[in-house]
């Protein structure tokens, strides 16, 4: 493996998150990692950015030289492309979260906007964000969009012959309850996902919290510390890629 290509949200993009430690395991420096993760981005952008990054990497590397890792994010996060230049002090960036570029780019032009229900506590949120969650969002539709992003990415990577693994930042598949995935609008898509390529855990947050609580913020925050990410790589990702059994406590 000569290059690691990763995508995700705030659990992925920092240079001290899990990709750093996975890269080090394979002898890669940070410049040997293509990381298109970004704080707060949803699964649509995670998929689109990953597919473009892999397409670019395949111009230089053979498929067998690549390893792809994806950490899927919140189901109810949304992105849209617009030729309009929407401006707001409260897209979730501009000083509130410095790591977010909103609008962002997939290829070149920064015309992809992201919105996040976690930003509803901001003062004077952009009206487009309010309108989406008031008029257009549904839990079923959000789950369908995420499943479509996962399937598109899996089919793309399989067609290109690139080795990959996937996981989730938190337990996104049970976000709306145990039986939500049995909805006929959802189930046929969910059943198409190849979970053989998923880490056999509920999510990064749940695993670190239950198995290495000292690697989590003491204030109850959801983002693992640097040593939490290192623990996650050494005890979950690497054993999975090596075909080993992952040791874990039963999650409640």
* Helix percent band: 25-40%
Radius of gyration: 18 Å
The neighbouring-strand order within the major sheet is 2-1-3-6
Shape: globular
Strand content: 5-15%
Structural class: alpha/beta
What about the largest sheet? 4 strands, parallel
Q: Give the helix tally.
A: 7
Please outline the helices and strands.
Blueprint: E1 3-7, H1 18-25, E2 33-35, H2 43-57, E3 66-72, E4 78-81, E5 112-115, H3 127-136, H4 139-160, E6 163-168, H5 184-190, H6 204-211, H7 226-241
Parallel strand pairs: 1-2, 1-3, 3-6
Antiparallel strand pairs: 4-5
Helix pairs in contact: 1-7, 2-4, 4-5
Structure, explained:
The chain has 252 residues and is of the alpha/beta class. The chain has seven helices and six strands, in the order βαβαβββααβααα. Strands 2-1-3-6 form a four-stranded parallel β-sheet, with helices on both faces. Strands 4-5 form a two-stranded antiparallel sheet. α1 links the parallel β1 (3-7) and β2. The longest helix is centred in the middle third of the chain and has 22 residues, at 139-160. The chain is globular and about 45 Å long. The model has no long low-confidence stretch (mean pLDDT 91).
Give the key terms.
252 residues, alpha/beta, four-stranded parallel sheet, two-stranded antiparallel sheet, globular
Task: Write a brief structural summary.
By secondary structure, the chain is an alpha/beta fold. The chain has helices spanning 18-25, 43-57, 127-136, 139-160, 184-190, 204-211, 226-241, and strands at residues 3-7, 33-35, 66-72, 78-81, 112-115, 163-168. Helix 1 (18-25) links the parallel strand 1 (3-7) and strand 2.
